[in-house]
Amino acid sequence: MPDTAVVTGAARGIGRAIAVRLAREGWQVVVADLDARELETAAEEIGALAVPGDTSTEAGVRHLVDTAYDSLGHVDVFFANAGIGSLAGLEATDAQWARVLETNVLAHVRAARHLVPRWLDAGGGRLVVTASAAGLLTMLGDAPYSVSKHGAVAFAEWLSATYRHRGIVVQAICPQGVQTRMLDGAGPLRELLTLDATLTADEVAEAAWQALAGDDFYVLPHPDVGDYYAHRAADPDAWLAGMNRLQQKLDQQTQQTSTAPTQENA
After folding, report:
1. Sheet holding 77-80, edge to edge
2. Tens digits of per-residue pLDDT, 18-39?
């Protein structure tokens, strides 16, 4: 099994848990995140090399990949884990759309540009994308996140279809509710995301670790996501009707919250 990895979005949450899991197995790990201070703390605890920076940009990705190769000599697995949401629908601004797409999709494209040629020369490599169940289904209340995660899955599929015969393995991790800071900040969407059992970041990291032993494209820490995806494909209209019913519940909850009397006006 490979012994070197890069993990983005590794200062906390799923990324940090993946880095911890790899280090526990004796891997050499490079971690990246925008939050330099928290990243340094995580790297010290993990025993990893910290490379702070914005991995959604061309310069940031190039610096990360070059630094990883300089430090490790080679990169066997790249975990493209960094991701953000907007909690916005049609009101999302162009700037919000751009930032989410840069982070959740184009960061993967830019990483592949730098990694795939090296992996082809080396005879293989592995890209593991944290795509979210939203990439297979949708995310009510967050249009940019939903679209970008579908884009992340689509790009990962394209890479796999194009390069798998040349030794490059591509996988997409698609968890649902995970106990992270993103879930804590999901507001009214939190109830929707926790309809099924929520997992810890460590549990998702364990699923990612187990997936490295094979080359299955989809990694589904929540098995129910596979059932939802099959239902969606088999009867899209029925699935959309069900999602709309969930949206109506969200609308009702939002309305009740906005009209509930406060202590001052009760």
Report:
1. 49-52, 28-33, 4-8, 77-80, 125-130, 168-173, 218-219
2. 999 999 999 999 999 999 999 9
Question: What is the domain extent for residue 136?
Answer: 4-224
Which residues neighbour 133 within 8 Å (Cβ) at sequence distance 6 or greater?
A: 174, 175, 176, 222, 225, 228
- Provide the annotated active-site residues: 145
How remote is the C-alpha of 141 from its chain's centroid?
Answer: 18
Does 229 fall in a domain?
A: no
SS3 219: strand
| Residue 89 maps to a domain | yes
pLDDT of amino acid 214: 97
Residue indicated by tokens 């996140």: 145
The DSSP code for 256 is H
Rounded Cα gap, residues 222 and 174, in angstroms: 8
User: What does pLDDT average to over the chain?
Assistant: 91
Domain count, the chain: 1
Long-range contacts of 65-68, Cβ-Cβ distance < 8 Å, separation of 24 or more:
65/6, 65/111, 65/114, 65/115, 66/114, 67/30, 68/4, 68/6, 68/30
Residue 133 maps to a domain = yes
> What's 108's domain CATH number?
3.40.50.720
- Asked if 40 contacts 113 with a C-beta cutoff of 8 angstroms, the reply is no
Confidence class for position 259, pLDDT limits 50, 70, 90: low
d(CA 266, CA 259): 11
Residue 82 domain-assigned? yes
pLDDT-derived band of residue 262, with 50, 70 and 90 as boundaries? very low
